[in-house]
Task: inverse folding
């Protein structure tokens, strides 16, 4: 799989778990990391897509999970560490959009947005903190909404902001342990993410930025650079 990677570290020898690998951002990150010589383990919900991805990355280990099974989320990183003989980085790119005025969002949808965008990534990260070795990286995708809320995204923004706050505390807790905690606040990308919303229609948005360029620049290159201590 080739994605025209440019800057950043080499990735050779780095053992990485990518969670949400069946999505656009996760799939790009997994491909770029594998292209750079990293040993990759994949986790995603969509089994056929996961198997296809695993085949394209040399038959790397793959495991399916659902965001609602938080214990299964927490078990992903320990599984990857067993599968790869250790773990140097975990990338979490799980999420779902939801739109509409706050007063119109049904309770079940609000719960779904919080589960997929906050509780599941936190559960994955909890397992990662137990499985990662020294000089390792935990990179979790949140979003630019944390810094600039947009009308019609109250529950999605609240979930991403909860995740960002949680990561801020974890970053402090991990100082001295050698685990670098990244909160990756991606901007609006051209992945079609907003069109897969679980409820409502997206507000008028400018064209999304090129996903491959942004994933390389904001996620893959910094993960490898931090891993290499640069
Ligand atoms: N694209 C953007 O404009 C943008 C901007 C800022 C932040 N982000 C964030 O970037 C991350 C990835 O976005 P993307 O563009 O790659 O979207 P995507 O292609 O829709 O990927 C979302 C990922 O989350 C997984 N997921 C959704 N619901 C799940 C559930 N119940 N259980 C397990 N996995 C579940 C999806 O699994 P399936 O493949 O099985 O559906 C997929 O792997 C998300 O956290 C998103 O909030 C995206």
Result:
């Amino acid at each position: 799989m080739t994605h025209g990677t440019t800057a950043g570290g080499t990735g050779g020898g780095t053992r990485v778990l990518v969670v949400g690998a069946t999505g656009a951002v996760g799939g790009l990150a997994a491909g770029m990391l594998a292209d750079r010589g990293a040993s990759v383990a994949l986790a995603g919900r969509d089994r056929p897509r996961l198997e296809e991805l695993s085949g394209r990355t040399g038959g790397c280990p793959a495991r399916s999970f659902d965001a609602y099974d938080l214990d299964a989320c927490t078990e992903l990183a320990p599984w990857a560490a067993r599968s790869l003989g250790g773990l140097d980085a975990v990338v979490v790119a799980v999420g779902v959009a939801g739109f509409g005025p706050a007063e119109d969002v049904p309770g079940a949808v609000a719960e779904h947005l919080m589960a997929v965008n906050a509780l599941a990534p936190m559960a994955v990260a909890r397992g990662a903190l137990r499985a990662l070795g020294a000089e390792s990286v935990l990179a979790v995708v949140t979003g630019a909404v944390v810094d600039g809320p947009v009308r019609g995204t109250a529950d999605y923004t609240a979930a991403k902001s909860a995740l960002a706050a949680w990561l801020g505390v974890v970053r402090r807790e991990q100082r001295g342990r050698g685990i670098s905690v990244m909160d990756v606040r991606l901007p609006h990308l051209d992945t079609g993410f907003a069109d897969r919303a679980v409820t409502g229609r997206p507000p008028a948005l400018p064209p999304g930025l090129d996903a491959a360029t942004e994933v390389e620049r904001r996620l893959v290159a910094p993960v490898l650079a931090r891993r290499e201590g640069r």
